[in-house]
């Protein structure tokens, strides 16, 4: 098998699925084939696991010479002149970028329905959403288009779609992976991660992606282990905390039942389970939406019709350029966040909203730190439900925001967290089990998730 064969068959599979899934915004056939030809000519070293492997990137990860839109009209003709650090590293390892995946506009959403490029469909049931915002990456992996796809997770955008698609998706510790070249949403929450069907397949990708980068001052100097070493280690004596709040009101019964079954399996393998409380969980959603929207309102100022992408036509003066470009270029969810964030940061309301939410964030962080002092993992469901019908929640943003209740806290605390496939409900829809570990302890997630799988 040559790299060219692999890229050709991947492209054929993507083409076959796309009319039903719409998982990609842009495919990258020509450049991918050229990269594969070069690899074949140079010869693939036998010890390089990743060389020649076709992968896909969420479309908020900038790729040199390959259109990068963040699923927004305002960037729909943006052709970056540089690669994100993770793209640079993964390409140096020999992986091949076959395309850019669909997502919620600027990663704001939980269903991939806020994309300017139409929603992605869930491969398990085409009438349902794939989750979001990394819904295109999740669907592409679940459908077998690519072995691995990359996404970003600000409040659950890797884990929730992974749960909805029955795949493994990991959000690393804040600072583990450079954010350089990720189109910023909430910079103090954003983290890039990897999605694969099998747990063991994610490990070598994370090893390559991780590590300090001078271009991201929040990236950590910590040494990066070879994450593959944790795959298949036993979990005897592993201390697992199960928070009551993760099984409370608003969590669907079929999800609870399936995850409880999963926890039993972990116990059968020697894990020790404690029931614990994360008392500030109920404030996570409102605090997150104030903080992440505030950061977004600041980060999205740069889209002004001057520097990047789309610019409104027939404008009369500079104010008109700004106002019309942003009015026409952003979709309704992005505008809602910008307004919410601008309001929360404005002088008269800053203390009441932004500052209050920042304090709640500290309390949530302390809840996690306390429990993780005495436990190796926190385990519960990833999402409160299974994939819902396309269109079912578009008119109701608050209902959609509540779907992040179980994922947001890990971003608030900066700790690593993953969704691991935990079987299916009676209707055949996938359920995800979430595993949350101490800062920089992704290894324990790989250990437990591979034992569980
Ligand atoms: N659903 C959350 C939001 O809309 C999380 C998004 C994300 O993680 N990018 O903000």
UniProtKB/TrEMBL annotation:
InterPro entries, alphabetized: Amidase, Amidase_CS, Amidase_dom, AS_sf, GatA
Catalytic reactions of this protein: L-glutamyl-tRNA(Gln) + L-glutamine + ATP + H2O = L-glutaminyl-tRNA(Gln) + L-glutamate + ADP + phosphate + H(+)
Keyword Nucleotide-binding attributed: yes
SUPFAM superfamilies: Amidase signature (AS) enzymes
Top EC class for this record: ligase
Coiled-coil region(s): none
Active site, per annotation: 58, 133, 157
Alphabetically ordered keywords of this record: ATP-binding, Ligase, Nucleotide-binding, Protein biosynthesis
EC number(s) on file: 6.3.5.7
Domain called Amidase: residue spans: 5-445
Transmembrane regions: none
Pfam families: Amidase
Self-association state and partner proteins as the record states: Heterotrimer of A, B and C subunits.
Family recorded in the similarity comment: Belongs to the amidase family. GatA subfamily.
Function: Allows the formation of correctly charged Gln-tRNA(Gln) through the transamidation of misacylated Glu-tRNA(Gln) in organisms which lack glutaminyl-tRNA synthetase. The reaction takes place in the presence of glutamine and ATP through an activated gamma-phospho-Glu-tRNA(Gln).
Database matches in PANTHER family: GLUTAMYL-TRNA(GLN) AMIDOTRANSFERASE SUBUNIT A, TRANSAMIDASE
Name under which the protein is recorded: Glutamyl-tRNA(Gln) amidotransferase subunit A
Gene: gatA
């Amino acid at each position: 098998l040559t790299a060219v064969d692999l890229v050709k068959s991947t492209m054929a599979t993507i083409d076959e699925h796309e009319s039903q899934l719409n998982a990609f915004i842009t495919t990258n056939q020509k450049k991918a084939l050229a990269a594969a030809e070069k690899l074949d000519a140079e010869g693939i070293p036998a010890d390089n696991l990743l060389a020649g492997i076709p992968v896909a990137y969420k479309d908020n990860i900038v790729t040199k010479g390959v259109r990068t839109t963040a699923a927004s009209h305002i960037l729909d003709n943006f052709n970056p002149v540089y690669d994100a650090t993770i793209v640079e590293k993964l390409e140096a390892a020999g992986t091949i970028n076959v395309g850019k995946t669909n997502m919620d506009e600027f990663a704001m959403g939980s269903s991939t329905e806020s994309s300017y490029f139409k929603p992605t469909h869930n491969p398990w049931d085409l009438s349902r959403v794939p989750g979001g915002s990394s819904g295109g990456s999740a669907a592409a992996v679940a459908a077998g288009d690519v072995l691995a796809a990359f996404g970003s997770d600000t409040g659950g955008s890797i884990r929730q779609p992974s749960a909805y698609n029955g795949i493994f998706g990991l959000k690393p510790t804040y600072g583990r992976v450079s954010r350089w070249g990720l189109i910023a949403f909430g910079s103090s929450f954003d983290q890039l991660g990897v999605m694969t069907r099998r747990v063991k397949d994610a490990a070598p990708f994370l090893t390559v992606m991780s590590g300090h980068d001078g271009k991201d001052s929040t990236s950590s100097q910590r040494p990066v282990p070879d994450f593959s070493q944790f795959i298949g280690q036993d979990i005897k004596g592993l201390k697992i905390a199960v928070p009551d709040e993760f099984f409370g009101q608003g969590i669907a019964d079929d999800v609870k039942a399936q995850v409880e079954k999963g926890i039993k399996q972990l116990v059968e393998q020697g894990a020790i389970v404690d029931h614990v409380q994360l008392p500030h969980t109920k404030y996570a959603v409102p605090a997150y939406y104030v903080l992440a929207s505030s950061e977004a309102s600041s980060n999205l100022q740069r889209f002004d019709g001057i520097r990047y992408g789309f610019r409104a036509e027939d404008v009369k003066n500079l104010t008109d350029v700004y106002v019309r470009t942003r009015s026409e270029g952003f979709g309704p969810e992005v505008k809602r966040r910008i307004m919410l964030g601008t309001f929360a940061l404005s002088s008269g309301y800053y203390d009441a909203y932004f500052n209050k939410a920042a304090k709640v964030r500290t309390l949530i962080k302390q809840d996690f730190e306390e429990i993780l002092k005495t436990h190796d993992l926190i385990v519960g469901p990833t999402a409160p439900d299974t994939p819902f019908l396309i269109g079912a929640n578009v008119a109701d943003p608050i209902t959609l925001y509540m779907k992040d209740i179980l994922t947001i806290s890990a971003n608030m605390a900066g700790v690593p967290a993953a969704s691991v496939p935990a079987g299916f409900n009676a209707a055949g829809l996938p359920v995800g089990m979430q595993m949350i570990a101490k800062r920089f302890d992704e290894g324990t997630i790989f250990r437990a998730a591979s034992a569980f799988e």
